[in-house]
Specification:
With 166 residues, this protein is of the alpha/beta class. The protein is built from 6 helices and 10 strands; from the N terminus they run ααβαβββαβαβββαββ. It has a single domain (2-155), classed as YbaK protein (Alpha-Beta Complex), CATH 3.90.960.10. Strands 1, 2, 3, 5, 6, 7, 8 and 9 form an 8-stranded mixed sheet that branches. It has a two-stranded antiparallel sheet with strand order 4-10.
Length: 166
């Protein structure tokens, strides 16, 4: 537990959160939050309240997309928003280089590069959301409106439903 808090990636997130609002705290989970489902189970919250931080590649640029855990990022919607034909998921090496985090612990804050950020507008159904904090076992809880402010992200309709349930 203590080791996770001391990791450089987690320390970067802690600093970014403290600089923004000292009431925001990183929590260490006993179980992995590598996937949205695992995080929701650990936190006993709805999967939709989990922030999936995804890196997309466009031509020579990258975009961070913050997507609700019960949704899937729509590459077609992203293409229309940015007016580009070539948009794809970044690979693990690109994620590490662009964000400074490994897949499973990518935080929406304290990224190595200042990429444009789009935030899934469906998060508006939640007051608070949970995001990764630099490690698969670390998260932070934040008010949705504060997340927009903290990341300077742009709210957009960037998703489609992950699983349709009737």
């Amino acid at each position: 537990m203590e080791d996770i808090l001391n990791k450089e990636t987690v320390q970067r997130v802690i600093k970014a959160l403290n600089d923004f609002d000292q009431s925001l705290k990183v929590e260490i989970l006993n179980t992995s939050a590598r996937t949205a489902q695992e995080a929701a189970s650990s936190l006993k919250c709805e999967v939709g309240a989990i922030v999936k931080t995804l890196l997309l590649r466009t031509d020579n640029n990258f975009i961070l997309c913050l997507v609700a855990g019960d949704k899937k990022c729509s590459l077609n919607k992203i293409k229309k928003i940015i007016n580009k034909k070539d948009v794809s998921m970044a690979n693990a090496e690109q994620v590490k280089t662009q964000t400074g985090f490994s897949i499973g612990g990518v935080s929406p804050v304290a990224n190595s590069n200042r990429n444009k950020i789009f935030i899934d507008s469906s998060f508006s159904r939640f007051e608070d959301v949970y995001a990764a904090a630099g490690h698969p076992n670390s998260i932070f809880k934040i008010n949705y409106k504060k997340l927009i402010e903290l990341t300077k992200g742009k709210e957009e309709d960037i998703t489609q439903w992950e699983n349709l349930k009737f």
